[in-house]
Specification:
The complex is a heterodimer. By secondary structure, chain A is mostly helical. Chain A folds into two domains: 237 residues, no CATH class; 103 residues, abc type-2 transporter like domain (abc type-2 transporter like fold). Chain A contains 17 helices and four strands. A four-stranded mixed sheet of chain A has the order 2-1-3-4, with helices on both faces. By secondary structure, chain B is an alpha/beta fold. Classes of the chains: A mainly alpha, B alpha/beta.
Amino acid sequence: MNKRNKNIKDIVNPNQLLSRFNPRGFGALKFLLEKEFKQILRNKFLIRVIIFLPLIALSLLPMVANFEIKNNNLAVIDNDHSPSSSLFIRKIVSSGHFHLVSVRQNYNDALNDIEQDRADVILEIPAFFEKDLMTTYSAQVNVTANAVNAVKGALGSGYLMQIIHNFSNDLRSRFMAGNSKIQTPAFEIVPRYDFNPYLEYKFSMIPAIIMMILGMISGFLPALNIVGEKEKGTIEQMNVTPVGRFPVILSKLIPYWIIGFIVLTICFIVVWIIYDMVSVGGYLEIYLFATVFVLAFSGLGLIISNYANTIQQAMYLMFFFVINFIFLSGLYTPISSTPEWVQTMSLFSPLRYMIEALRSIYLKGSHFGDLWTKFAALVGFAVFFNLWAILSYRKKA
Amino acid sequence: MTNIQESEWAVKCEKLSKTYKPDIQALKNIDLKVSPHQIFGIIGPDGAGKTTLFRILTTLILADEGKAEVMGCDVVTEYEKIRRNIGYMPGRFSLYQDLTVEENLKFFASVFGTTIEENYDLIKSIYQQIEPFKNRRAGQLSGGMKQKLALSCALIHKPKLLILDEPTTGVDPVSRKEFWEMLRQLKEEGITILVSTAYMDEASLCDAIALILDGEFLKIDTPENIVRQFEPTLYSIRSLQRSKLLTDLRGLPAIDSCYAFGESTHATVIHNQISPEALKKYLSEKGHTDLEVVPIAPTVEDCFMELSKQMHQN
């Protein structure tokens, strides 16, 4: 009963704990990190996703994200049936870009092939094709392409035009040699593609895909983790402890930063094994850029985690940002060919700077000095996002 | 509760208000004083404002108006001191389900800068019951065991004040009884316990209670005093025609109020205006069979019904 007579201030000595250990500081970070790692390592599903997502993305996406049009299905209407017309058709098929799927008697039948999705391009060779060629030195062919898939249609007919052009050049030189009336082209264009000599799309896609993966792991997984704790109510139990917010948030970020860089390294190794592709520039620069990029993305993730109350909301917001960042980043299509206002919008995609920088380093071997503007932009994003995250966190607390 | 001076309250609230957007007033100007070393119950139905009050006291949210002190520390300016010295068990199980029993306990000990060993004696009697399962993940525990783990975690840093938000909601009657037994032991250790519940029958297990409804306190007193202050006469009525009973009772002017109470129906009568016999006669004329009308002593729930009726009349 003596206990009851004590003044409560004697019993409560708030400084008693303070002297030994300051949980508001970063002393608690060790325990928090220990807990996070335990949870992550125990989450079999997450580990699998972290490992398999980059592997599948890297082995599948570069093959898919490719604008080279192969295997165009071709329907042919040969009204001439001459040696020249059959040579012409053979030439087209042997280019590798076209599959001859049908030979029709009239244009309507061929058009039907397009409607039934059997053919992508129609080539109609008129009667007297050979005769016209021989007598007037010119002949007309009719090319019709299915443009439901605009890229495929345009490129398909483009390839076909090119083959026709080559064919007519061939014919000219073969039949008209010495005929001064016909002009052969005065010069021939032989393009040289720097840094990617065979114009392989995958070489410019891979660095971009790697950055996308890094952004997702280091930016969005910690945010989802925080929102998850909000949803489960466990964050509340943490908030009544003396542990400060900075250690709590850092304990969420650090594990995913580490995982992100491990995955980044794995990606480089995978790319080297599968595609025999190594960076022309320095890896040190890549990691430096990646660090700032990761900071920016985790800042964005934190902002989202501050505003979202459920994982569903957070996922949807992230989906929105990722889709827009990707399409504005120049990952699939060159920014310079978009309308001007879209080009302005693309300045707000951190992914753009990162992808441009990584492509330059990886393919061109650019140095930091060449890329400092992009680096500065990324630093700007990192500062902006993290400041916003801190401010919005205070407001909600 | 002698010798404790006015200023030494475990919890002191003055004119505390909290409004949620758009216009839900969860707490309306409430005043509360809780003396240390007792079990203090906040009793009221869901949505009365119990959790809001606790979230303010545990420094999780800020009140719009008013002042609150926990063990003499202001909830706004001295929240760090409060967090060090209270144990909070939210209404929903909020420990890490993917960590084991032992890991949870260890973790919460470490974030408070202490160890399990240091305060083992305090949680011993509770923790021993779940210790055989210490390597099991918290998510795989039964409801009763989860609750014991949550209580152990809330106690591991030897708090001076334990705040429990509806700890017995959704818990079976045997575990509920056990739980209140644990609370009584903790009180003996000198810990002040602030507990909320929607179960009126748990009121008598508290040293003092505050009845809360719609963000306002109806009454703050000991359960005994609250029951003693109940003025009207109370009858417990049973009939085979239960569904009809309430309508028939309400048709009688002598009946002040009536409400279902478990298996039976309780009716209050002002100043003995009608005797049990007369009431029985009236009801049998209305066609009720197997009638039973017994005058009974009021419980806290009857007091709550009476007080809430008075509040609505005002």
